[in-house]
Fold each of these.
Amino acid sequence: MTTSTAPTIELKPYTKKELVGDMPTWCPGCGDFSILATYFKLLEKRQIPREKITSIAGIGCSSRFPYFVNAYGVHFLHGRAVAFATGVSLSRPDLHVCVFTGDGDAYSIGGNHLTHAARKNIRMTLIVMDNQVYGLTKKQTSPTSPIGFKSKTDTTGAIDHPINPMKQLIAAGATFVARSHSHLPNHVAEVMDQAISHDGFSVVEVLSECTEFFPGAFDAANPRKGGKFELVPKEHDVTDEAAAYKLAMADFPGYFGVFMKVNRATKNALEANLIKETQAKIGIATPQDLLQKSFDRFA
Amino acid sequence: MTENMSGSTTGASGQPVAPDKKSIQDVVIRFAGNSQDGIQSIGGFLARLAGRTEKDVMTYMTIPATISGGASIFQVRLGTGDVLSAGDEVDILVAFYQHSFKDNIQSLRKGGILLFDSDNVNPDVNDAKFRSVGVPITSRTVEAIGGTAKDKGKNMFVLGLVARTFDLDVPKLEAMLQSYFKGKGDDAIRNVMNAFHGGYSYDIGKLMETFKFVPPADRAGRKKVVTDGNQAIAYGALAAAIRFGAAYPITPWTSVMEILRAELPKYGGMFVQAEDEIAAVSMACGASYAGHTALTGTSGPGLSLKSEAIGWAVMAEIPLVIVDVQRGGPATGLPTNVEQSDLNIARNGSHGDAPRIVIAPGSVEDCFYTTVEAVKLAREYSCPVIVLSDQALATRVEAWEMPDFKTCVKDISPTFEPRGPGFKPYENTPSGIPSHAAPGTPMVDGRYPIVTGLEHDEYGHPASRPANHVMMVAKRRRKLQMLALKLPPPEMYGPPEGEALLLGWGSSRGPIREAVDQARAAGEAVSAIHLRYLLPLQAGIQEIMQSFNHIFVVELNDRGVHGYGQLGGIMRAMYCDPRIRGINKTDGLPFKVREILAQLRQRLPTVPTAGMD
């Protein structure tokens, strides 16, 4: 908005150390550690002023993320982080807004908000740490759990056809869609870096193993475990939605890398433009003037 | 009307009466037609004219729940004194069609006038309860406009008739019509003016008496504006410096968001239509957190959906303004009818101990100032504030004093002064009020705050320690106890002691006052308290109640399973006073004065009068 932007303070460069917040509460071996370390690395590289960094999360193990980052952070409601982040992003164009969430938070209860934030192209980066299970509540079926997965809510094996997050995100109109695997931190860094640079709604779906409740879920994509980590083909046109969708249709483990990267006006820019045009039309006027003008019509 | 039309004779239409002008102080006119007849237009112009000619006005209308077609009425009460309700009974019923006559005739008072379109209506002229005056509205309109306009413009013809009947300020009316229809083309303006003059030049004085309003007693003062309650809320939000809002369309809240969507860009702000109610309140929480206190709004169904997020704002102690324009419930209920049945959910909605502020405006003017105050309180106490309006206030038009924008317009832009060292957003201070830092605020010791819906310590870090939760729950409640000490005493109408006390809130304020006026005129010792703050409650209510023998809480909701309406139940719980009873109704219509008095008198076999022993 045209009214408030915090001044950018010149600080001496910070290291990852200064970004460390609370001690993570994740289980040893949790895939989320890798994403946290990568985020620190990227922020250290970019030197975004810490007071401008705003991490927002919903509910779930991965949503504990903001506590572990020493910057501004919010722990909001289950499934609603993207909507909250929309309010932050639209009203404060000077902030770096990153949303950290999981498969349940993003694709189950939060699905509708994801769709609309994507189609409106709200400026933010969304990192979905997908472990295909509900970990915090101790092993219930997730919308991304594969058929046959034995959980406490499907003791004889999950029966529901899972969501394909990549198809969902492409169809919703997200302007940057990428996929990665927490066991390959260099790859995570590469796509997350691009995601943060992208001006628009950027999503990275990261397979992030829950060692406690679904160990080995992603071994099939981990070369170190005998799996195949197949990158998005070099010739893939990241502006071609149908091609991206086709990649998304591949059977598990599927492809990794950037599926979609298009430029489309963000809602942030469109609204800012609307304000600019409106104010240009009416000329300089204080709120008092504007209100008096409106009320003179009511008299 | 307050002047009795004594000596009026019943009889068939066309019977001449003496053509002199009768002096009146107020009149209630109901226009009954179909939704495409421009009924609202007539009422709207009359209401605007009232504001410009030092009269008070209140309107009441029904709209069919369908999108097109259907019967609709618009009722206007004009007066040179205070107009407190839209009128129990109608003095003049203007009926466009046979069904308009049939469906509305019972609202016409005894001795009132039925002004009917003789081209379409065949009233029972032998009914001695009212007088009939037939005017060939349709054919005369066609004649006046000529050409192919058919009968469009009947409403303007009727406006002319009314202007003639009540000796209204024609130059002002004509100026309003010219200005309103300016953008619609020369043909439209010509038709409008021809229709209007057709009606005005119709010699209505041959058929019935005409009237003249007595001049108002010293009403010199500020200019008046004429708006409905929703407009007052929207512009109140702008005056209060709201610059970000998000909401979802729902009747009867929608017009507020439509105004804000169009207006906020002029002020450098924005209003977002969200994908659902929960997204809307979440966005508002985000914007508030990020430093610009935000507003969202809805009706009952949306308030139910927003309750989790409201609880989050209570826990995280983030300012948030939620407007609830109440309608008939529960569930989808009665979308276009008034009710005051969201009080309990406004005060308590959300799991856990989640105290928040609840305020309810009692008039259209109050809608403006209450919204300004709601924003101020939300920021001061860093918590959700719910503004409880309703469908009646939202849609009714009143004339009120032009606000002084030099004093009521605020600036609430965030500041980013560095904080710390050891910044504690949730410090356990005596006031209980938190101190937030919006993102962008530097922390001198490099330690940044977290905001969460989990129970947390003074730094905002999650904490489930027993003593901590005790402290934090007390802190969040204590800050509202501090507010309670600062609230003004409740608004008293009538002497502070007597026989019966009426207690009310929200849009019923006007009819309750009028009921007190009528009761006192009949020698009954009745007074009223009007509550504007529903949480926390104002002090002093108990002391006032002690000076009365009977207490009735007047509200548009059900007596409930245990016999008390929503505010009634709250009063009973607060004051443990078995004398507290309810005057309730749930027909989806505003209180008529006589309904309040009937319930009051029925429950008090004899109401002892003042001065009699």
Amino acid sequence: MDYAIETFSLTKVFSDWWGRDKVYAVNDLNLQVRYNEVFGLLGPNGSGKTTTMKILLGLLHPTKGKALVLGGLGSDPKINARIGFLPEESYLYRYLNARETLDFYGRLFGLPSKVRKMRIEALLDMVGLKAVASRPVGTFSKGMARRIGLAQAIINDPDLLILDEPTTGLDPIGTRQIKDLILNLAKRGKTVLLCSHLLADVEDVCDRIAILYGGKIQSEGKVKELLQQTEKRQITTGAISDTAVEQIKRIVKNEQADCVVTSPMDKLETFFIKAVAIAQRQELPTSGAVSTTQIGGFLAPEAPVEDILDKLVSAPTSQESAEPLTTEKVVPVETSDTKRDERLLQKLTEPAKPVETEPVVRDLGPKDKKPETKPVEHKAAQQEQTKKSIIDQLTGPVRDIGPKDPGPKYREGTGSNGAGRSSPKKENKGQTDKSQAGD
Amino acid sequence: MKIAAVFIILLLVLLPAMGFTVTGDDTLKGRLQTFVSYGLSLTSFLLCLLTIMVSIYSLTSDIKQKQIYTVITKPIRRFQLLLGKLLGIILLDVGLLVLFCGLIYAIVVYMPKYLGTDGEELTRAKNEFFTARAGLVPPEVDVHREVTETYNKLKKTGQLEQFFREFSQKKIIAELTKQKQLEKRAATVGRSLVWEFNNVKVVDPNLFIRFKYNVSLNPLDLQVHSRWVVGDLRQIRYATKIRTPIYSCTRKDLIRTFYEIEVPADAVAKDGYLAVEFINLPLNNTVVIFPLADGLEVLYKADTFTGNFIRAAILILLRLIFLACLGILASTFLSFPVAILLCLVVFFTAAVSGFVIESFKYISENISGVYAYAIEPIIQLLPQFDKFNPTKFLVSARLLSWPLLAKVAAIMVCIKAVLLLLLGLLIFSYKEIAKIVV
């Protein structure tokens, strides 16, 4: 079987000045990442994660062994054209502004100017830095720089995305966005290699993980298999009466098992996003990233915050037929791509102004957690929808996520912590189905 | 790079200031020469420093601040990255050079009007500064036979053993040759010296005879009386009909100082023959010697000042390109401070390359083996900034010809700089970009 990333007893030894072996950063590593897989590389500091990535990208030469990326060497420009890389910190040219930075990287990929322009605008929108796009990135905070770093990593629509600690320095919304993005890319048949020690993040998005220690794989496998507690069951219900709880308890007792009943807690992440959304609604000034609005901007204004993010995670629906999830490679940027992007820009440029000034979550009160309304088809909503589709086309082709589509790659972004449960999803049945399946 | 801005502002302020304050020897020509000399030297020097710094900083900072991680993992090859940096630096240099040389040129052209000079001083400046003259040097006289004779005589009489025991044969011969050649360029009192030139092609109405005297005994007023005859002297020698005019003049000139005699160009015969005769007048009480290198020259206008100035600027650019390649090579394997140090050492050594080459040649007599295989190749790789100094040409209004420029370009850039660059590319292609972090 072909692998997106494959290493053969990869070894990297750092020698001291006299040429004596000092440290085995990577030791006889055999790593296999399949196509269309989100693979997490975990391990404590100094366990060889970053070194492995650098070898894969040709930034370091292996002492022994071999590393293949997309069937070739990581130093080959043809392979590089299909890789997106986000290093452990976003190393940017301080004096370029955000737009110029993205333009620079777009040029390095040899993207035609039209495509470049469109993608830059869409990406700036996506990472929420459109308002500060003409500020030098040297003045950006770490999280904002990280967002630009992420944007440059996906500007070429890569087949393989290598992310080194992508969520460091990001606010919870940014973290969530990155996780959503990873899932989105995976759904489009892309491969993602993720390296992090934020275990919660890895757990949320990865199909398979490997835990490194001392440059060797200590444990490897599917997240679900590794983590599932087969001897326990969990039932989540709506707000049922105490009598019903008593009844359930009795049934469980009959099965000779223990039973604990509590109300589920909101995840801190969810709570945070809500708080920011409220501040955003009051139009408080900020010099930082305005991700909340922008994320909201992709969706209908009536949708609650939680749904906004969930929807982003799940990718929107459209008329296009579902694309089978295969391991086939995605065609690099070509004329058809150009046309697609052109179409998008046209759409993007038309409604841009009025939409941005309108707070997206205006109608949403802080207590209004479960709005029963459905998206209203007014003009602003349509414009937002258009914008959203542009972003989606960049981060993932628009396709149907209906109940028929089992979406093997898909998991709910909120993961096993079950935050998704706290708010019901009205407008997307398939998503709800799957979030439960995922749990 | 704020340092670039500092350099640019410094030059923008200094050049005009210099233009209006230089005095030289208080003549227009003196002022022009002083200004061009200092202005161009300063520009060249600062741009050289700037080129070294920018070329090194560009790559080392990318590596140190790790921006190179995201650049080199894009679909470009490593040599493209280096060539891109080089191209950027060269473009910057071209831009700055055009700016500053344009400024110098404008000031130089404007200076006569600003000072309001006219008449003789202006004519002199036009003839001896605002021009590009080619020079004809009298061919070396073959003294081989005489030298051999003298050497054998000395050997026979045993004087060699007696006086020159510590000298090698080669050195004695060289010394004798020099002595004999000087003899050919010395005139005792009342005697004359004649130099003959063939293939003189003069377009301009005038040609110039540039000379400098050395004497065996200093006259009291340090001046030499002389009579010069210029023209087709064959007409006198063979007593034929005079077809081309013969000019003559009597002069009194200071010793060890350059002078120029202006002669109408029609003195040159149709076949390009020209003879120059110097007569050591009996008023003198000394032997007059014309030094070997620059004792006598026939100068004629070959190009305009503007053309020469442009070529001088290109000569500076060639220098900068070499330094840019050197800087890039250094930055592929050294850190910023070390690379700067290395490049500055090379730069200053190249600025005095004549001295360095001579010194090593002198030492090499004792360590010829080591010299030939170890030191010489390195010295050969050094560019000779002092030998091809653009101000030298402009100050003396000497023609800096295209062929000479092409030669410098071929040696300094096409061979030496490209060699350095290739070495840099090779190192960079196999280098581990990432820092070792565990």
